[in-house]
Amino acid sequence: MSTPLIELKNIEKHFGSVIALNGVSISVYPGECHCLLGDNGAGKSTFIKTMAGVHQPTRGEIFMDGQQVVFNTARDAIEAGIATVYQDLAMIPLMSVTRNFWMGREPLRSVGPLKFIDFEMANRVTMEEMDRMGIHLREPSQAVGTLSGGERQTVAIARSVYFGAKILILDEPTSALGVRQTSNVLATIDKVRKKGIGVVFISHNVRHALAVGDRFTVLNRGQTLGTAKRGEIEAEELQDMMAGGKELAQLEGSLGGTV
Ligand SMILES: Nc1ncnc2c1ncn2[C@@H]1O[C@H](COP(=O)(O)OP(=O)(O)OP(=O)(O)O)[C@@H](O)[C@H]1O
Ligand SMILES: [Mg+2]
């Protein structure tokens, strides 16, 4: 394989006496969807925030294209091409799809000494980029709040891709969605991967992960339980690893059924 786009080695993160991450390593290759699975409190959000420069690791190293990097701030990571779509999305529901797409990066046009937002261009690009992701907007001036959850995720993803992300981190993009919207988002992830972007897909849901993932890393209590390739692992095994297999088997025994 080629050099990973990003590689994190032995990441530890302590919050006072709490050890949230205790030696986590993953790599992400161009065009790969790498799924990060783990139960509540496993350390998934802490890990991606470390990748995104929001947290600084207590120990461990980060490499991009084989070169060591240090992110002191979230801006450092964004400038290096790491885009993160958080679950709460950071969108303004009452503002238009176009305004949300461009937020803070609006294209300007000059009329004499004055500068105006070039809405004609902004609307056109927003429509084109959403089309590319398979969402055909009737009207880019419609409020983001009127879109479905899956469509809103797609706005956030399309925006990251348009602004040049090399690595796209998605924190549980499908957890609040119904079946059809979930498949839309999974199809979007597939399109993004085909552009050569490395996708890190965080999920609780083994079926969603298996539908698009190329590799799977399971986190449990701040540690990596291993990385498997597509085809090497089955849903049940992943589920067991996430839940800490034995505990679940015991519970199943005592309840006399399937959990
Ligand atoms: N800022 C913080 N200060 C102290 N402890 C923290 C902080 N952030 C996270 N932790 C702890 O680190 C551990 C991992 O939390 P994290 O949010 O990364 O888990 P997660 O896998 O994202 O869980 P979930 O699926 O519930 O979102 C938890 O025990 C949590 O309480
Ligand atoms: Mg989390």
From TrEMBL:
Coiled coil: none annotated. The keyword GTP-binding does not apply. Keywords: ATP-binding, Nucleotide-binding. SUPFAM superfamilies: P-loop containing nucleoside triphosphate hydrolases. Residues 6-246 form the ABC transporter domain. InterPro entries: AAA+_ATPase (IPR003593), ABC_carbohydrate_import_ATPase (IPR050107), ABC_transporter-like_ATP-bd (IPR003439), P-loop_NTPase (IPR027417). GO terms for molecular function: ATP binding. It comes from the Bacteria. The keyword Nucleotide-binding applies. This is ATP-binding cassette domain-containing protein. It comes from Hoeflea poritis.
